[in-house]
UniProtKB/TrEMBL annotation:
<dbReference type="GO" id="GO:0016746">
    <property type="term" value="F:acyltransferase activity"/>
</dbReference>
<dbReference type="Pfam" id="PF00795">
    <property type="entry name" value="CN_hydrolase"/>
</dbReference>
<dbReference type="InterPro" id="IPR036526">
    <property type="entry name" value="C-N_Hydrolase_sf"/>
</dbReference>
<keyword id="KW-0808">Transferase</keyword>
<protein>
    <submittedName>
        <fullName>Acyltransferase</fullName>
    </submittedName>
</protein>
<keyword id="KW-0012">Acyltransferase</keyword>
<feature type="domain" description="CN hydrolase">
    <location>
        <begin position="5"/>
        <end position="251"/>
    </location>
</feature>
<dbReference type="InterPro" id="IPR003010">
    <property type="entry name" value="C-N_Hydrolase"/>
</dbReference>
<dbReference type="InterPro" id="IPR050345">
    <property type="entry name" value="Aliph_Amidase/BUP"/>
</dbReference>
<keyword id="KW-0378">Hydrolase</keyword>
Length: 282
């Protein structure tokens, strides 16, 4: 196994409600990623559907065995693919889901657990909350998935890393809010600081795939990137434009970071277990 992996991040601008067009874009970026020698390519949250779906949710929802989803899974025969869409379950519940596909198979499905329903966000009105936080094995290592708002709740990276994750994939559809100047957004600054903190605190690589473009006047800024376990950005995409970002990641950096700063090793789960039953949520 090579210690160095090449990871591609597809910072795309999905067309709202147009699964066919977005599917074509996905396959184009998958081919580009393979040409760049990438072992993994990561797409943003709801890259197949667009974000501000509202009543389009029923139209764009796909089951895991849908031919559109199967076409991307089949494309993972020689490159691992992280992609996101509205998943319809057998019970006809609807989730914002992200799939990790490898060698032509679905390896893992994460259903977004934290649905923002405040300010400009109204997700819980249209989709269902996921309820599981589980890492998965990918390329002989353990990884975890968080979809956008999931990463704004420290329970998610904590649970994933305490279960063995050494890499965190974060597909997102984060708009640019609190504009400071032409290339600086409050949300961009927050994401950068948050992901750097997680990378250092838990000793992991973090892959952030945020979309770009406009929907109903909402601007999605991009700013995707890869952070190393020392908190440094290995690679960063630009703001406002589509881009295929390619980064080379040395998985041995996790070993080094967790030895020199053993914060995760020294976590005391028994303290959590002792106090959580007594927390009053009312």
């Amino acid at each position: 196994m090579s210690h160095v992996q090449t990871i591609a991040v597809a910072q795309i601008s999905p067309k709202l409600g147009d699964v066919a067009a977005n599917l074509t874009v996905h396959h184009r970026y998958i081919e580009r990623a393979k040409e760049q020698g990438a072992q993994v390519v990561v797409f943003p949250e709801l890259g197949l559907t667009g974000y501000l779906l509202q009543d389009l949710t029923l139209e764009v929802a796909r089951r895991l065995d849908d031919p559109d989803i199967a076409s991307i899974v089949e494309a993972s025969s020689d490159i691992d693919i992280v992609f996101s869409f509205v998943e319809e379950s057998s019970e006809h519940f609807f989730y914002i889901s992200s799939v990790y596909a490898s060698q032509g198979q679905v390896v893992h499905v994460h259903r977004k657990a934290y649905l923002p329903t405040y300010g400009m966000f109204d997700e819980r009105r249209y989709v269902t909350q996921g309820s599981r936080v589980e890492p998965f094995t990918a390329r002989e290592s353990t990884a975890g998935m968080m979809i956008c708002e999931d990463a704004w709740h420290v329970s998610m990276p904590y649970l994933l890393t305490m279960q063995g994750a050494t890499a965190l994939y974060v597909p997102a559809s984060s708009p640019g809010r609190n504009v400071m100047d032409e290339h600086d957004f409050g949300s961009h600054t927050f994401w950068r600081q948050l992901l750097q903190m997680y990378a250092q605190l838990f000793g992991v690589h973090v892959v952030f795939a945020n979309r770009v473009g406009y929907e109903d006047g909402v601007h999605f800024y991009g700013g995707s990137g890869v952070v190393g376990p020392d908190g440094r950005w290995i690679a960063q995409a630009g703001v406002g434009q589509e881009e295929l970002l390619v980064a080379r990641v040395d998985v041995r950096d996790v070993r080094r970071a967790r030895y020199t700063t053993p914060l995760l090793r020294d976590e005391r789960l028994e303290i959590m277990e002792r106090h959580l039953p007594f927390i009053d949520r009312d």
